Amino acid sequence: MEALSFGQYQLIYNAFSFGIAAMLAATLFYWLGLSQIAPKYKLAVIITGLVTFIAGYHYLRIFDSWESAFTVMDGSVELTGVAFNQAYRYVDWLLTVPLLLVELILVMSLTKSETVRKSVTLGGAAALMILLGYPGEVSGGIDGTRFIWGALSMIPFLYIVYSLFVGLSESINSQPGEVRGLINLARWVVVLSWSFYPLVYFLPFVIPMDGGTATVVIEVGYTIADVVAKAFFGVLIFMIAFRKSQSPATA
């Protein structure tokens, strides 16, 4: 971990605080709204809240680790010698990223066999993507190790994108008209928000940055992507489940 300016430290500190608030508020919103959801869609909304709950917990751990890594006094930021634990973020992703795809599959009301098949294949690809990216993230620098592992993690990512836009297209087109647009938007939110992760991951290779600037880009960038991919995406899942619950044809 590189030394940071006071402004850089505060920016990341506030981003983590925002992440905690967004995730925990989203969890309350989803779970308190369960009474408005038909039984067949409740599991999707429960998992939606579970994703943001897990993320909120890990952001609390990330926040504590960040505070422990630095001493701030009179506008000066010094390293304490305690390592900032980047593994919290990857443990969170390993648990939540596959569940994000399961949310979308469950709320689409596919056949049982198709639901199981797509949940296993897409969830497994998402887990593999995270596992492959981790060694590069903790390699300790912007070097070949980070690049190779990042490139490998893109393989399952591209498979997920292909599956969402080709493998699920027929299923999405068969959805009720009142939710088809929302499901299509949710698909785009997954792809665009997840694309932000490799962008942040590889950006230091494209634009030379000092240690402090690279840390800000990575930590703030990942936090923004997390809020969009989990909290905002969850709102879309809730809206789809709510609209289907209100429709006699799908409830």
From TrEMBL:
Annotated compartments: Membrane
Gene3D superfamilies according to UniProt: Rhodopsin 7-helix transmembrane proteins
Q: Which GO terms describe its biological process?
A: phototransduction
Q: Which InterPro entries match?
A: Arc/bac/fun_rhodopsins (IPR001425), Rhodopsin_retinal_BS (IPR018229)
Tell me the GO molecular function terms.
Answer: monoatomic ion channel activity; photoreceptor activity
**Where are the membrane-spanning stretches?**
12-31, 43-60, 87-107, 119-135, 147-168, 188-208, 220-242
User: Do you know which Pfam families this protein is assigned to?
Assistant: Bac_rhodopsin
Alphabetized, the UniProt keywords read: Chromophore, Membrane, Photoreceptor protein, Receptor, Retinal protein, Sensory transduction, Transmembrane, Transmembrane helix
GO CC terms on record? membrane
Q: How does it sit in the membrane?
A: Multi-pass membrane protein
Q: Which family does it belong to?
A: Belongs to the archaeal/bacterial/fungal opsin family.
The entry's protein name is: Bacteriorhodopsin
Q: Which organism is it from?
A: Wenzhouxiangella limi
